[in-house]
């Protein structure tokens, strides 16, 4: 039993929080461990529903190129050379950044996710890791992936300790065959996982798909059975009215990636208000650090809020709604009871210094969390009742940064 004493909740209440077996409980008796919060502000841990965490190693690569050139000339050649040591260094840096900026759960899509499970476990975060599936419409490649990916998922389950779980992550409609997409869904059902896919990110993708199949990417995915309650559609920028009602009807979630969409000039913005009003579970993601360029969910919340207001009006989205998107909605999308500091919910929580300049004055604490906070104000982070950061200190931070710098230089130089 853990007792976090004397915390201030976002509604102003001062209370004590009890944690047992990784979840909040209503009251405790004898506590083995006591943390004195000294009236710090308790905030649910943030959930990043779309990222490629190890891409932190490619932060700042190929700046200013158009998407096509950026992928073909900058990103893909470097990714092609990435070895386990690079991905591991990138993942560790990503976990450090996420802990430091308030994330407690993330939904990843990348490579060597079985190997990365131990890194994430070591850093203490909760995660859903999806081995990226790209078959390029090549049936032989698909068969190879069908032999390989179930083993990756089994390994994630084995090493994940219940905190790190697998998902099926077919990349997108234009990189994965119908057979590959259908198989992803079957495999997700078999292992009881969700599906994570990029959808309708650019106008070109939607236009090409309608031309090629007569259907929008969203309708096409639905026809293949991929639009379900445990599906996360990343980006979902260019949606028709029909797409929006279909997503809501199926109960799928969308991940709003406002910063990446602006940086890569993907158009939009995503039809946040229309989606949320239709009943869709809207969540927030950063995308990889190469297109953001950070994994800071506070920035993501602020930019999401601004972009929605810019499109729909200043009263269109209260800060509380944005905070829910980044917390409880994200957890729900990934099938985890968390994102709220309430009895029975996962004990994933931050303590924020209410006296930090960026939180002062406290007229509207929720607005401060969404619009003004500096990550330095986050002093403490806990996942599953285990402390990951205390007094702003994450163990080994300096070494993790040095190793990432070294691995990044090594990766660049290998190509010279
Ligand atoms: Zn992405």
Provide structural commentary.
This protein is α/β, with parallel strands linked by helices. The protein has helices at residues 67-81, 84-100, 113-123, 139-160, 178-191, 203-213, 217-223, 241-250, 258-263, 272-277, 297-312, 319-326, 328-333, 365-372, 397-414, and strands at residues 2-8, 14-20, 23-25, 33-36, 41-44, 46-51, 103-110, 126-133, 164-170, 195-199, 231-235, 253-256, 281-284, 349-352, 378-383, 386-389. It has 15 helices and 16 strands. It has a 4-stranded mixed sheet with strand order 3-2-1-4, with no helix packed on it. The chain has a 4-stranded antiparallel sheet with strand order 5-14-15-16, with no helix packed on it. A 4-stranded parallel sheet has the order 6-7-8-9. Helix 3 (113-123) packs parallel to helix 4 (139-160), helix 11 (297-312) crosses helix 12 and helix 12 packs across helix 14 (365-372). It is globular, with a radius of gyration of 21 Å. It starts with a strand and ends with a helix. The structure holds zinc ion. The site of zinc ion has 6 residues, from loops.
Task: List low-confidence stretches.
Answer: none
How many distinct folded domains?
2
Strand order of the largest sheet: 3-2-1-4
* CATH level-four homologous superfamily name of the largest domain: Metal-dependent hydrolases
Quaternary structure type: single chain
CATH architecture of the largest domain: Alpha-Beta Barrel
Portion of residues within helices: 40-55%
Radius of gyration (CA) equals 21 Å
The geometry reads as: globular
Mean pLDDT: 96
CATH class of the largest domain: Alpha Beta
- Separation of the first and last Cα atoms: 54 Å
CATH topology of the largest domain: TIM Barrel
Query: How many helices?
Result: 15
Q: Quickly give the structural class.
A: alpha/beta
Can you summarize the main beta sheet? 4 strands, mixed
Strand content: 15-25%
User: What's the count of strands?
Assistant: 16
Bound molecules: zinc ion
């Amino acid at each position: 039993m853990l007792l976090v004493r004397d915390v201030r909740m976002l509604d102003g209440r001062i209370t004590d929080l009890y944690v047992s077996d990784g979840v909040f409980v209503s009251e405790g008796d004898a506590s083995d461990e006591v943390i004195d919060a000294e009236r710090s502000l308790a905030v649910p841990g943030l959930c990043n529903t779309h990222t490629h965490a190890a891409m932190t190693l490619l932060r700042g690569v190929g700046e200013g190129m158009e998407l096509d050139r950026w992928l073909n000339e900058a990103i893909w050649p470097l990714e092609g050379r990435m070895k386990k040591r690079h991905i591991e260094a990138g993942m560790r840096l990503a976990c450090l950044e996420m802990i430091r900026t308030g994330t407690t759960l993330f939904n990843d899509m990348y490579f060597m996710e079985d190997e990365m499970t131990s890194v994430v476990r070591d850093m203490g975060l909760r995660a859903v890791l999806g081995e990226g599936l790209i078959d390029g419409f090549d049936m032989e490649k698909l068969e190879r992936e069908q032999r390989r990916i179930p083993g990756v998922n089994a390994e994630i389950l084995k090493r994940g300790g219940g905190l790190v779980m697998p998902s099926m992550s077919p990349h997108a409609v234009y990189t994965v065959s119908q057979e590959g997409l259908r198989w992803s869904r079957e495999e997700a059902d078999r292992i009881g996982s969700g599906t994570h896919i990029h959808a309708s990110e650019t106008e070109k993708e939607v236009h090409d798909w309608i031309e090629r199949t007569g259907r929008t990417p969203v309708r096409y995915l639905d026809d293949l059975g991929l639009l379900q309650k445990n599906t996360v559609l990343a980006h979902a920028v260019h949606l028709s009215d029909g797409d929006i009602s279909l997503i809501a009807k199926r109960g799928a979630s969308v991940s709003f990636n406002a910063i990446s969409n602006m940086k890569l000039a993907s158009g939009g913005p995503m039809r946040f208000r229309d989606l949320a009003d239709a009943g869709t579970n809207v969540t927030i993601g950063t995308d990889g650090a190469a297109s953001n360029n950070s994994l800071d969910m506070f920035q993501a919340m602020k930019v999401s809020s601004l972009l929605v207001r810019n499109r729909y009006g200043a009263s269109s989205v209260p800060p509380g709604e944005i905070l829910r998107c980044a917390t409880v909605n994200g957890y729900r999308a990934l099938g985890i009871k968390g994102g709220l500091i309430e009895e029975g919910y996962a004990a994933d929580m931050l303590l924020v210094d209410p006296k930090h300049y960026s939180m002062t004055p406290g007229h509207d604490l929720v607005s401060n969390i969404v619009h003004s906070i500096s990550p330095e104000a986050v002093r403490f982070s806990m996942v599953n009742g285990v402390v990951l950061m205390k007094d702003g200190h994450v163990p080994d931070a300096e070494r993790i940064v040095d190793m990432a710098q070294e691995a990044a230089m090594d990766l660049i130089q290998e190509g010279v």
